């Protein structure tokens, strides 16, 4: 059951489920106009075709939309950028026409919409209000005790325990991900520096931890109020349960494999390439509760 705080947060969240993307692509007139404007903007020399150079901004936009870092910052991300470019050019052409651009863009957008339908994303604006509500709620004491029991390590100092405790909190508590470097730099570390150094260097008994963690969360809530953080959050949990379930039912598993195998081109059925293995995994994903490939490893 969801708490009142969770329900309020979800009510105010913006949910991305791919429906807007599907509506755009399926509306022929609107999508044609969208492609026309995009193509004209990209076609710098006005020759009616997009060169590899002219395609780069479109590829960068697609990468940003699926959460990839900027080109050049990761070999893995650069490989995906190259794969997207190859989708447009089929790995052979040095330029693409408007109809080719529209066809590939349609496929890519519908693929993104399918991923969002399977794994919707909530865009949350975390401004410290929910965190303050948690700190002042009757649930705080029990949760703080439970967190302390997980992180307590003998003579550990508060300076070590407080940041470790933050990693046990989630967006349901009103806390943005402590693992995010921007949250660490702009919120967590400055908040810790506001606490008295002599307090931070004390051993973390349960009573001391309980009081100082509450103060620490109060400082973090104030910082979030001054500088809110936008968080993209998914509610889905990928724990392998879907895979175990389908493997336990041989008939259903064989039927699923058959449906995927049908879509593999005949020439690739002996020694199937990685490209078609990735396609097969995407088709399996919805049935076995796998995360989208773009969500990370």
TrEMBL record:
Transmembrane segments: none annotated. The keyword Glycoprotein does not apply. It comes from Triticum urartu (Red wild einkorn). It comes from the Eukaryota. The keyword Calcium applies. Pfam families: EF-hand_7. Residues 30-65 form the EF-hand domain. Keywords: Calcium. This is EF-hand domain-containing protein. GO terms for molecular function: calcium ion binding. InterPro entries: EF-hand-dom_pair, EF_Hand_1_Ca_BS, EF_hand_dom. Coiled coil: none annotated.
